[in-house]
Structures are given as C-alpha cells and as structure tokens.
Amino acid sequence: MQSVERYRNNFLAYLEEKTIRKEPKSLYEPYAYILGLGGKRLRPVLTLLATDLFGGNYKDAMDAALGVEVFHNFSLVHDDIMDDAPLRRGKQTVHEKWDVNTGILSGDAMLINAYQLFEAYEGDTFKTLVKLFSRTAIEVCEGQQYDVDFEDRDEVTIAEYLKMIQYKTAVLLGCALKMGAIIAKATPENQKLIYDFGLSLGTAFQLQDDYLDAFGDPKTFGKQVGGDIIENKKTFLYLKSLEFGTKEQKKQLKDMFSIQPANPASKIEAVKTIFTDTGAVAATKEEIHTYTNAAFDALENIEISKDSRAILRTFGQDLMQRTV
C-alpha cells in the first residue's frame, strides 16, 4: 500500500507518458493543455487506491484511472463553455485561450479517448467497467442539464438540487472507486459499499465547492469567486436562504438573481450577506458534515483491513478540510 501522494505521482508520470501529442495540433494541444493544468487528481488516485485496498495491483488500474480523469476534464471543458467561465484552476479556460469551436471538438476527442482507454481490459472486466462508465457518463450529462434547467426555473427543491449535484459530481467519485474494486475483483457487496462511500463523499465535496465558490479565498480557489452568484445559480446556499429568510430577504435575493449588473462585485457581496444572515451558511456546513459522516458510515462496513479503512478515512477528512 502506497501513500496518496505516491499514487498521485505515479499517475502523473503515466499521464505524461500517455498524453496525446500529434496532428492536428489544433485538436490535441487544448486536450493536453487542460490535462496539464493540474488539479487534485482525486478520481484517478481513488481508482488506484481502491485497487490496492481490495488486493489488486494499482498498476493494472492505470488505464481506467486515466479514462476517468480524461472524462472529468472533458466535462470541465464543456462546462466552462456553457458557463462562459474565464478561469479554470487559475488559468484561462480552453475556449478563452482558443475558441468555442476548438473547445467543443477537443472535448469530443477527449470523451472518445476515455472510452478507448478501457480497451486495455478484457472479458467480464471490460464489460463491467464500460457499463459502469457509460451509466456514470450519462448521469453526469443529466446532472449538467438539471443545472442548466434550474437557472430558468423559479422553484427548485432541496431534493432536486441534491440529485443534480450527485449526478454532476458525486457519481464520478463513486465510479472511480468502484472501478478499482472491479479491477481487483472485490465482491459485489464491497463494490457497492465503496461506490456509496464515494457518492456520499462526492456530495459533501460538491456542497463544499458551492460554499467555497462564494466564500473561498480568490488566491487559492483557482476559479472566479462568486461565479455561481454571477450566473444566478440556485445553489444549496441560495435555496436555504429562501427557506430561512424573511419576506424582505427573499424578495431582495430573488431580485438580485434576476439581474446581471455591469459591476458584479456589489451583487456578490450583497448576496453573501444574505447567505450569512439567513443561516444558510451554517445549514450548508451542517449538510456537508452530514454527507461526510454518511460516507464514513459506509466505509465502516467495507471488508478491508483496519489500516486500509484508516487510509480512506484520512483521505476523506483531508478532502473536506480543503480551502481550494
């Protein structure tokens, strides 16, 4: 069993080896660019880690881990286009550095290449991995569409919002972990439990991301702080503010989410004040805590060693203490 950092470093070396550099450059340079922007590499690390935890060899999971990471970055390229986001990990987004058409086509190539990476596996393992990956990929697309739809809807429930973030973000963490379990030939019950661990942790992770989008440090967050507010996204913070707020606070919040001022800074600060004053910030932190605990409850039932369980618990705790 290696440290998380060793898994990450080994994956980065494999990523560098496998990064496509060929003609036409206008297709593959943006592909290499987004993969080279860094990031936490959470998903591939989880695939490698899970493979080892269930008695497999993490090296056998490299292609699956890379497939998950390529797909994740494909989704970021297209999400950034849809959101018209200027920054990703503190750098220009692909469509800003090149153009929208290049971003769309390079993203398409990434999606296709992600599927090609699973061709390294044979028989039942290949079939099971691709079936899981395909289900997850369509759920991510559904989650993104829910996110878009919510922008134009007057009413969104908390349950609908949680489903959206689970599809858009959490299912890919569960998928990454379950792929490692599949490659290591873990029992179906353990495969389900490790997926549930990832799903709950991923939900907590996205709620934390929503919080940091509004209240994170611009120097460390890597994205435009207040981006969700600028885009009028109905996040957990927004929905809880409507649930807890006074009549005047609700009216003020809805009014601000119906405008796009030339200088968004004042809007961002006013909305953040409402988020805090209504108790939405405290409620969001509590929900993060709830889903983190649900992940650890699933972890307790997985048939792995005590030391292995401790590694996953530490990983989850470190993830939820992030500021970026």
Secondary structure elements and pairings:
Elements: H1 4-18, H2 25-35, H3 42-53, H4 62-83, E1 87-88, E2 91-92, H5 94-97, H6 100-117, H7 123-152, H8 158-183, H9 188-215, H10 218-221, H11 227-230, H12 236-244, H13 247-256, H14 265-277, H15 280-300, H16 306-320
Antiparallel strand pairs: 1-2
Helix pairs in contact: 1-3, 2-6, 3-4, 3-8, 4-6, 4-7, 4-8, 7-8, 8-9, 9-15, 12-15, 15-16
CATH architecture: Orthogonal Bundle
Count of beta strands: 2
Number of domains: 1
Strand content: under 5%
Structural class: mainly alpha
| Cα-based radius of gyration, to the nearest Å | 20 Å
Return the string of H and E elements. HHHHEEHHHHHHHHHHHH
Q: What is the residue-averaged pLDDT? A: 93
Number of helices: 16
First-to-last CA distance: 27 Å
CATH class: Mainly Alpha
Using the coordinates shown, work out and report the CATH topology: Farnesyl Diphosphate Synthase
Shape: globular
Portion of residues in helices?
over 70%
Side by side, the strands of the main sheet go: 1-2
Largest sheet: 2 strands, antiparallel
pLDDT under 50 segments (min length 5)?
none
CATH homologous superfamily label:
Farnesyl Diphosphate Synthase
Written account of the structure:
The chain is mainly α and 324 residues long. It has a single domain (4-320), classed as Orthogonal Bundle (Farnesyl Diphosphate Synthase), CATH 1.10.600.10. Helix content is 75%, strand content 1%. The protein has 16 helices and two strands. The chain has helices at residues 4-18, 25-35, 42-53, 62-83, 94-97, 100-117, 123-152, 158-183, 188-215, 218-221, 227-230, 236-244, 247-256, 265-277, 280-300, 306-320, and strands at residues 87-88, 91-92. The chain has a two-stranded antiparallel ribbon. A hairpin with a 2-residue loop joins strand 1 (87-88) and strand 2 (91-92). The longest helix is centred in the middle third of the chain and has 30 residues, at 123-152. The model has no long low-confidence stretch (mean pLDDT 93).
